[in-house]
UniProtKB/TrEMBL annotation:
The protein, known as: Bardet-Biedl syndrome 7 protein homolog
Coiled coil: 368-395
Keyword Coiled coil: yes
One Pfam family of this chain: Beta-prop_BBS7
Higher taxonomy: Eukaryota, Metazoa, Ecdysozoa, Arthropoda, Chelicerata
Gene: 107367848
Length: 770
């Protein structure tokens, strides 16, 4: 692709709401068929639309076939396979248990009703013509079709046999089937919410791979026939895209992480990934509407040929933001057309306009009179459409309010229910200890009301253009209103929570529909909401600062799971009670970098952490829940006093950066005052400050850090039973003195963090072992 290429948008079609990867190209538009693109789309109404696109300059959409909407037949996934002679076969999963197959001309040739499924079909893949792989929320099934299946066009239930079955310990978010060239067998791969990719073999998990986030999209790259390796791309809800190289043997699998993009910074959730192997271009579609084109470098082989090197991270080439959440991307016409579909069902294309000089050497001469005629006709058409839209709106408003009069009847029937609108929402934790809340509606959003019964900090997002107003009150509850601009269908805001306080976050979404209606979204904020699942080995240094909490009593695994679900995110909804006698989880704090180990079995629950505040929060929460259910428990607590200094050392880099920013801000204020008397000196000082300033990587304030340090020592006294030494008034009186102590002992000296720890221990009257 030319570096100077520009992406030009052309809107083609509008269908209903769509799910991920439900737009597929039957014919990508090669030169053999005159660049005509044939594609198929399935939406939430259950309708299948197959259409063709002619080459430019024509933008007409020709419908090949279209099925009627299917009640309760939402299209969750769609696949295009090919038979022996290369004819395309459209395979679609409808509703919860139906799979149908259509030819390229719309004739149904296959139907499969799986009444034995306990979960709806979320992912499926058919390896033509016998293997059917199906995934629900937690359950994976592998079925085998008998040869007479394809002769019975609409009912094939008697011709299917179950072959393999697997229950995932965590919710399945993605599924793909690749091929093992060594054993000559297909390999099913699932991605799960517990930040693992699982490679399945028969009815067991053969291998687990840790990912850089919660994976939600899987894509397998083609490989040469001589290599036994498979390159697997995955995208995460945190916006990362990474590549794993899988080396298959007869009985083992070796996995290696090659790269991840982007290395730093925030990106929206990855919804779809595709790649053009011939040019080495990687296409990524995100939930905020951003379409990114990345390119891999080429390497020169010993035989003189050029090879796309996917082992090295790609480079961003260009991007385009359509403003709506992407669900599918198809590469057509040898990469010159990017066919995209959004959550609301808008299908559009991005053409590549190469900036060649030849485009300007032969300009097209168009008559001014013809151009004026086209413009006038377009204006007339727009006016007619606006009048028609206003009539429809007025009719709908009268219909919903019951004001339509009929000649025969006094009043015609009116709608008795409020119109329903779908909202696509997500609340995602990022590495900077903040949550991104994103909402997307199929209709324009008028306003969003945020209500919380716990303290939260709302941070306005760059992508949010809404007008923000906060209800000031002394209580810890938060009530804020965001008034959106016209035609806004996507809303995004950044927020931060305080660990130790669990509560409920409610969002009231009002749209611009008539009559006015509202939907409520409820999110339960956990006590340790800033922790995420982790599988890395704990460093030996941190093991010397472990605090241990052991709770034992007359409770079972289900009770332990319920307690953990109330305290921590990313806890599975279910566990295997038959095969699991002991379960272990590992967590990492995104705010403080401390770890948490959890091990539980019947009658015992063990927590280990190098952060004493984490132990205190868990002890309070679980004791409270056990008391509610009248479960008798006993608590054994081991406190490591040296962990206090260890936690301060974890916070020291953040503390140092924020204090440096505070000092720079004070200097900038002084320089502004200097502009009045010495403008030249002030200007030179301003330029020097700008050149020496570092980008801000931390998005919380000093008061929050001071609160963390204060809570750390207060938790120590509480767990040691020394709360009588510190009354509320005594603590409040010490806060100013504590802040002065911290600010005076944070500088660039090498051993300054040790001095700060000693000063803090002396301030709180704590004697630690050396």
């Amino acid at each position: 692709m030319n570096i100077g290429a520009k992406l030009n948008r052309i809107d083609y079609l509008q269908v209903g709401l769509t799910s991920q990867n439900t737009l597929k190209a039957l014919s990508p538009g090669s030169s053999d068929n005159h660049l005509t693109v044939i594609a198929v789309i399935g939406d939430h109404s259950g309708s299948i639309h197959c259409f063709s696109l002619r080459p430019e300059p024509s933008t007409l959409v020709n419908t090949i076939f279209r099925t009627l909407p299917n009640p309760n037949g939402k299209v969750n996934c769609l696949q295009v396979a090919r038979d022996v002679i290369g004819s395309p076969k459209i395979l679609i999963a409808f509703g919860s248990s139906m799979i149908r197959g259509y030819t390229g001309k719309g004739k149904q040739f296959f139907g499969l009703q799986l009444n034995n499924l306990t979960e709806p079909i979320k992912h499926f893949q058919i390896i033509w013509p016998v293997d059917v792989y199906i995934c629900g929320y937690y359950i994976y099934n592998h079925y085998v079709l008998t040869p007479d299946t394809w002769t019975d066009g609409k009912n094939s239930n008697s011709s299917i046999q179950s072959k393999h079955f697997y229950i995932s310990p965590s919710k399945i978010t993605g599924f793909i089937v690749t091929f093992n060239s060594v054993s000559k067998r297909p390999v099913p791969i699932i991605s799960c919410e517990d930040r693992l990719i699982r490679i399945l073999k028969n009815s067991t998990c053969q291998y687990e791979i840790e990912t850089c986030g919660i994976p939600c999209v899987l894509f397998s790259l083609e490989r040469s026939s001589k290599s036994s390796k498979v390159n697997l791309l995955y995208g995460t809800i945190e916006g990362k895209v990474a590549l794993i190289s899988l080396d298959f043997g007869f009985n083992e699998v070796n996995a290696e992480h090659k790269w991840q993009i982007p290395d730093k910074g925030y990106r929206s959730q990855v919804n779809c990934i595709t790649m053009m192997e011939s040019t080495g271009e990687l296409y990524i579609g995100r939930s905020d509407g951003l379409i990114e084109v990345w390119v891999f470098m080429e390497t020169l082989e010993s035989n003189g040929s050029l090879l796309i090197n996917v082992d090295q991270s790609p480079t961003l080439l260009t991007d385009y933001n359509c403003g709506e959440s992407l669900t599918s991307i198809c590469i057509c016409r040898e990469g010159t057309l990017i066919l995209c579909c959004t959550f609301t069902g808008l299908i559009f294309g991005l053409n590549r306009d190469q900036m060649n000089s030849s485009n300007y050497e032969q300009p097209q001469i168009v008559s001014n009179r013809d151009m004026e005629h086209k413009i006038n006709s377009l204006k007339t058409e727009i006016d007619q459409l606006e009048k028609k839209l206003n009539r429809k709106r007025e009719f709908y408003q009268n219909l919903t309010s019951g004001l339509i009069l009929n000649k025969k009847q006094k009043n015609s029937p009116s709608y008795s229910t409020l119109p329903y609108f779908t909202i696509n929402d997500s609340l995602i934790l990022h590495d900077d200890a903040s949550y991104i809340l994103a909402l997307e509606s199929e209709v324009a959003i008028d306003s969003v009301i945020v209500q919380s019964d716990i303290p939260i900090e709302l941070i306005d997002s760059e992508r949010n253009s809404a007008v923000y107003s906060l209800n000031e009150q002394e209580s810890p509850q938060v009530l804020a209103t965001f008034r959106c601009q016209a035609n806004t269908t996507r809303f995004e805001i950044k927020m931060q929570f305080v660990e130790g306080q669990a509560g409920t976050l409610r969002l009231y979404i009002l749209t611009r529909m008539n009559p006015k209606s509202c939907q409520v979204k409820i999110y339960y904020i956990k006590a340790l909401s800033l922790h995420k699942r982790n599988y890395h080995q704990i460093d030996q240094e941190s093991l010397h600062f472990v605090n241990k909490l052991h709770i034992y009593g007359s409770f079972g695994l289900i009770d332990c799971l319920n307690w953990l679900q109330l305290c921590l995110p990313e806890v599975p909804e279910r566990i295997d009670l038959i095969n699991s006698t002991s379960i272990e989880y590992h967590y990492l704090s995104t705010l403080m970098g401390t770890f948490l180990e959890i091990n539980f079995y019947k009658g015992s629950l063990i927590f280990q952490s190098n952060n004493l505040s984490t132990i205190a929060i868990l002890k309070d929460a679980i004791t409270r829940e056990a008391t509610k259910k009248s479960i008798s428990i006993e608590v054994n607590l081991h406190i490591n006093e040296n962990s206090l200094g260890h936690t301060i050392r974890k916070l020291y880099p953040k503390l140092k950066q924020l204090l440096s920013e505070k000092r720079i801000d004070l200097i900038k204020e002084a320089v502004k005052d200097l502009h009045v008397v010495e403008p030249e000196i002030a200007e030179s000082l301003s330029q020097e400050l700008e050149s020496n300033s570092n980008p801000i990587l931390i998005h919380f304030n000093l008061e929050r850090l001071y609160g963390l340090i204060t809570d750390l020592f207060l938790d120590y006294f509480k767990l040691e039973g020394l709360t009588s030494r510190l009354t509320v008034s005594n603590v409040r009186g010490k806060l100013d003195e504590l802040i002065k102590l911290i600010e005076s002992n944070v500088n660039n000296e090498d051993n300054q963090v040790d001095i700060l720890v000693e000063k803090l221990n002396e301030f709180w009257g704590i004697k630690t072992m050396s």
